[in-house]
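explain this:

___
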Amino acid sequence: MKKPEMKQDNPVASPPPVSSVALRPASQVMTLARMGSFHQSRLSFMRVLLRRLKAENWQFKQSRWLIDAKGVGVATYEAIGPERSYTLVAFAHDLPAEKRSDRVIAEAWDATFTLHDGTISDADIERLRQNVPLQEAGRISDDEFVLSRANRSVRLFDYVRDCLAAGNQPDLAMIEPVGYLMRTTAVYGSGKFGAADRDIWANRPEFSGSFQPELLAVWLIRSFTIDIVEHMAVVKAPAKAVKLDPDIRRRIGVGNSTGLGMAPFLINHPSLIHAWINARETALARVRALAATDQAGLAGFLTMIAKAAKNADEWTTDSTYQHGKTQSLRYDLVRLDAFVRSLDADIDQPWDSIYRWGEFNLSLEGQEQLVSLLLEDHGDLIDDLASGMASDEAAHFRIDGSMPLSRLRQMMDTTYGWTKGIDYSQNDALARVWYVSEEKLEPRLGERFEEPIEPYEQPLAPGRDAVRAMKAIGQWIKNPGRSGDDNVAVFLLKHPEHRHIVRRMQTVFTLPYAEIQDNTISAEMQPIDLLRCKLSFFGASKFDPRSDRWLRITMYQGAPFPDELAMLDPDSLFYPPLASTGRPDHERV
């Protein structure tokens, strides 16, 4: 495998390590194939959230449990912080099997949820009872931050219920391949369906970063999924039922089904994506730059490799695309283990040596798993970077109309130089169209030359649009009476169709990881790579594509529950334990 060209022009953010290593260039990082191979890490948002809740000594309680013998009713869970409290309101429903669907167009679910700002009143619960079970057809208020719903994984839910009702613990071998009792099919926030706009809560310290209200809601939903299965076990066998063993319970997360609705996010939020990936790349550079480690450091790293290998062994999928990647990952982790065992702990910059070996010897899936593993035991060095994984996107909205066209063209040529390898006159390069469905107002991906959808195309092909804009600017400058000294405002008055890409250019030029350096409308593009990248930053641990356009994941599998967060280190639990009980892997607090 050819080693990617490494540029040395990106400074490592402070605090500086013992020596410096350059951040990986965007040309290497920002391809869809690599981004679609990212794994969860210490900087993933679920882990950032749990570290904060633990450090600030948040308290949690189930304040209502009004669920009947049919599993129908309402439950509330309070998260009580130093300054504010939040309440998850869960409505449980008796859903006929024929109505259970992962589709976004479903109209009924096993459970529906909202995250309320503060302690909730009975009057608010009644208001929400009339709306939350309807999801998109209802409306919540700016006192609510999140709207969600979930369905049971029927076979596993029933299996766990029946085991508990019989007085037995379920077999972990049955739990691990699925990893959840219920899976969400949507977690809405930021103003959708009446929820509070992001501006209302963005400056709250407990929500600094990305998607923190949504992930707080999902973590509390996880508690509900355990409580409801234990409740149904008691209903089935009141005198014999038992609760889940904590070590088994911890291996149950929350599932999620996610489709194309999420895919355009990485394209539509370039400055935010730069913040995410820049933090990850800076963290990698800091670790690689460490001058030394010791035998204990290498031993700890070997333990992490073993945990990642166990996770890969438990990762099941029917997707040919992902199956091949997972097989490569399993092989890569065996080779990585052997290489690390051969290392002398006294070598200079050992983590850099391991990373550089990986670049030459591992698949993209294995290389990006290696990046995550290198970060694991270096929290003191990298955890501060989580505070920078947000962006004031409004700051980039205003177009600088005074910029000379010659400068804009130069910037475009630099930033979009990667488009020179794409021939946009070929049908394969233009094969796809991103549009929004009229029925559900959700992003969809169609075939340009097979469907009459081009008039509805969304601006989600920055590379193509940049090429078109550069061509128009070149023609403008060549015209008599025009020149490169003309400013952007004059050009856009005549060519408003290029406003969006000019704004984007002025945003991404100083943000190297803001732009995906791939053709997002080509025939070969895999939308699943966009989904996988985003979900890795959330903290998803297993990815199961059901097609190239939607997948299932597991969230919070292994993480502490609210009643044990104070006693356990969440960062030691996001990979499966090596011991059968899990205890040796989470004793450290």
Remarks:
- Residues 1-18, 580-589 have pLDDT under 50 and may be disordered.
- The radius of gyration is 25 Å.
- The first strand starts at residue 59 and ends at 67.
- Residues 212-236 form the longest helix (25 residues).
